[in-house]
Amino acid sequence: MAVIIKYIVVRNGVEKMTFTTKKEADAYDKMLDIADNLYEFLETADIDMDEQQLEDLSLFLAQNKDSLIPIMKGIKPKEKMPSDQEPEQPNDKEKNAPKKNAPKKNEGEKKAEKEKTADKPKNTKKSKSRKKK
After folding, report:
1. How many CB atoms lie within 10 A of CB 58?
2. Which domain covers residue 62, as residue numbers?
3. Is there a domain that residue 35 lies in?
4. 54-85: pLDDT as tens digits
């Protein structure tokens, strides 16, 4: 006999969704909490929407909160590429070019880097001088 553990999200006596892990069930339950709060917020707005539209909109916003939060902070959203387009692959020159936003090294990092290179033996050839007789 197999034992199967199921996590069921219930809202107002209605089963909403069944999950196999507690983490997934908690995340879904939290999303529904956010949707409920958004519904109440949107109800107070002076917008003419029926109940179903308000519910659909609040659920959509809650499901996409990770994309919505930066927008609410005034950050321009990243543009989505159409699925039939591949992102451009950088050419070799771009791959090896230094990054523009790379953090600058502070004095301590520069000093440590110099010390590392100083410890390495230098690959120099000494020329032997021959005396002519």
Report:
1. 21
2. 7-72
3. yes
4. 999 999 999 999 999 999 899 887 766 555 55
